[in-house]
Every structure is written in C-alpha cells, then in structure tokens.
Amino acid sequence: MNRQSDIGYGYNTAIEKLAEELAVPQDRFDQAESRYKDLGEFLHRDESKVREFDPDVYVQGSFALGTPIKPASSNEDYDLDIVVAFRSLNKMSITQADLRRLLKDELKAYRKTRGISSEVGESRRCCTLVYADGAQFHMDVLPAVPNEAKMRLLLSSYMADEALAEGEIAITDSDETATYNVITDDWPRSNPRGFASWFKSRQIEQLNERRRAFLDAQGKVTASVEDVPVFRVRTPLQSSIMILKRHRDEWFAEKNPDLKVISIILTTLSSHAYSGENRVSDAIAKILRDMHLAIEQRGSISWIPNPTDPSENFADRWEMYPERRTAFFKWLEAARQDFGAVQKFSDAGIVLNELALSLGKPLTEATQSRVASSAGSRAATAAPAVAGGASGPGLVFGEEERRPTEPKGFG
Predict the structure, then answer these.
(1) Can you say whether the dihedral through the CA atoms of 160, 163, 164, 165 is positive or negative?
(2) Which of 131, 291, 329, 386 could lock 137 by a disulfide, CB 3.0 to 4.6 Å apart?
(3) Could you report the per-residue pLDDT of 189-241, keeping only the tens digit for each?
(4) CB burial of residue 367 (10 Å; 0-12, 13-18, 19+)
(5) If DSSP codes are grouped into helix, strand and coil, which group holds residue 97?
C-alpha cells in the first residue's frame, strides 16, 4: 500500500478500536438482563402486593439502545434504567405519590430478599437500587402507568402518526408539587420503547446486516434478525455515540460538569445526522458535521423534538439555562477540532496519543494494546467499504470550508 492510500488508515483503525475498548462486555449485558428479569419475576410472585396491577418490567436508556460505555474508573457504576409499568392501573385510579410508594415498598422487600445492603433510594422520578456484589450496577426504577390513549389524541391534534403512541407511559415526578399528591390526568409522560424503535429505524440496514452476521456465526441461519437484541451487535451509529459520550464526559469534567450535554440530546442529534455510513470514522465525521442541523429555532427557543412526542422539547432547559446551550456548541466545536486534527494520520498510535487528552489516557492506552494485538492482520481488520461502492462523507473538516457551529438564528 502506497503512502497516499495509507492516509487516514491509522485514524480509521484507532476509531474502530476505541469503540471496541469502550464497549460494555457481553457478560455485563447478560448481568443487566438477568437483574431486571429477576425483578420482574419478584413483582409477580404470589406474595407480591402489586401483582394484581400487572407490572411490566423492561429496560430503557443506553442499555436498551446498545450505547452504554464502560465506567471511566472502578469508582463509577453502570447505570441501568428500568421501567415498571403497571398495566392494570391508570392516572385516574392512583396518585403519582401512591404509585411511587407501592413500588418502593416492593423494592424494599426485594432488597431484603436478595441481600442488597444499601437502602432503596429515590430521585425526582425513580427509585434506586445499588448492588454491592462487585457488579458496579445501580438500578434506577421508574414507576409508570399506560398512557397510549391520551398520546393518540395529542398526536392526532398535531396531525402526526398515531402509531408513535405505542408504548407511551405516564410517569411520576416528585418535583411536580401541584399534581404529585392528587388524582389528576396531568402526569409527566415518556415513551422509552417508542424512542428505541425510532433509534433502530435510523440504522436499520446496518443493524440488520450485523444481526444476520451474528446469527450466521451462531449457526442459526433460519432465525429472524428481529430475534437478535440490539445490544448483541454494535453498529457504526452506536459506536459513534459511545465515543462521543466519552469525549463529552472528559470535556465537561474539565470545564463544568453541571453543564454536561445530556445523553438523550447527544443520542437524538447523532441519530438524525447519521445517514448509513458503514465505517465508524465516517459516521463520526457525518455526525459532528451535521448534528446541529436537527436543532430547530422556534422564535427565541431552541427545540430538539422528541421523535415520539412532537410537543416535547429535549432542550427545554436551555431556555432557563442558556449557558447549557452555549456549552453544547463549545463542546461540539471542541469535538470537531479534536477528531479533525487527527483524521489523516496513517499511524493509529499517533492518533491515540493525540486523542489522549480529550478521551482520557486510560482509554487510549488500553486501545493502543488492541491496535498492537491486531497489527499483524491488517488486511483482515481493515474497515469495510461503504455499501454500494459509494464513498463515505470523507475524513472530516480538513479540506472543506468550515461550517457555522450554531444553526441559523443563533447570535
């Protein structure tokens, strides 16, 4: 391979290996799955005080999307987000406070039965279980009731697809003092299952391609790709989000942790910007170039719509705290500069050395080991070409005219 064709190879290799190093080990996914399934079985036991309300227990958040990353240190936990939706209850049959108490009482019994030493905690929306078995897990458990009928009416008023209401839930929020302790139809709402379905749709070709490869490797040639959970494979979109999460964590830890871009914003904007790139390096290029384009300006308000609920703005706190909006664009510019500065290096080691400050030295050093172990099989580990022979978005920023870091309407 001549020098010209070698340009960028080191960058592509480094990015692929960074994603591998950040990935949560499969046994952790299995452990997380066993945790929430065990809780579901416990809530359906004969002695359960909530069994009659038909609790539906499922995972949400990064574990549901396949985008969690390893904790940066042994002092940090894996954050496992769980929903407990009581399908036989509704908003007019119980208060948010009473629903929370019902669940918390059962979690106390679960904690005692399973020998969990830490008390059941609470936040504004969830109850929390902290495991002490070396798993580095804490489980945030969100109580909920169905809310699909109400959401269908709302979607109809927006002339939106009513199918988006599937999976919609009403949730508790102790900060909503006017409604928390009274019977009312006015509850906060969410749709983690709907969001997960939308996330799949943004990468369905790449997702199914990797699912088929997974089934082939398992010898299950007649099984359906739909039977393979998202967390069993890793797509370029998932890998890109994982790497950008770590960059975000490191950047805000140094600048101001209180202003850190929340994961739902990072994930939503990345998913909008992604357009089917097959290499992680190309996916990051496209995401960093275009992720701001999905931010709408509605008058003076920055709006990042929830894909399953057009009335919800994921950036709602930017209006009250404009420094968060400013911090988002400063982080985005820093990410563009950090990844753009190393995109043409032909040596993966140099790429990782240069990224050590922005991604953390422990991560880049561990990734160096992965690169070294695969150095002898370069042809086998080369990134695949983009499907159909089309080129990707190119290695970002270096030759192209710089784009504004904020969408039209920002001063």
Answers:
(1) positive
(2) 131
(3) 999 999 999 999 999 999 999 999 989 988 887 789 988 888 889 999 999 99
(4) buried
(5) helix
- CA–CA gap between residue 261 and residue 61 (Å, rounded): 15
As a residue count, the chain comes to 411
Bridge partners (DSSP) of residue 57 are: 84
Q: Position 233: which residue type?
A: V
Six token digits for residue 101: 């108490």
Residue 311 token pair: 């009335």
For residue 27, give the 3-state DSSP assignment. Answer: helix
Q: Cβ distance 83 to 142 under 8 Å?
A: yes
Contact present, 252 and 331 (Cβ < 8 Å) = yes
Which residue from 198, 197, 226, 231 is spatially nearest to 212, judged by alpha carbons? 226
For tokens 């993966």, what's the residue? 348
CA distance between the termini of the chain: 47
Residue in 23, 150, 5 with CA at minimum distance from that of residue 78:
23
DSSP 8-state assignment for residue 23: B
One-letter identity of residue 115 = G
Report residue 75 as tokens: 């002092």
Q: What is the pTM of this model?
A: 0.88
CB 78 within 8 A of CB 139: no
Question: Of 346, 229, 216, 332, whose CA–CA distance to 284 is shortest?
Answer: 332
Taking only Cα atoms into account, the Rg of the chain, rounded to an integer number of angstroms, comes to 22
- The highest-confidence range among 29-38, 131-140, 167-176, 386-395, by mean pLDDT, is 167-176
Consecutive H or E run containing 250? helix 236-255
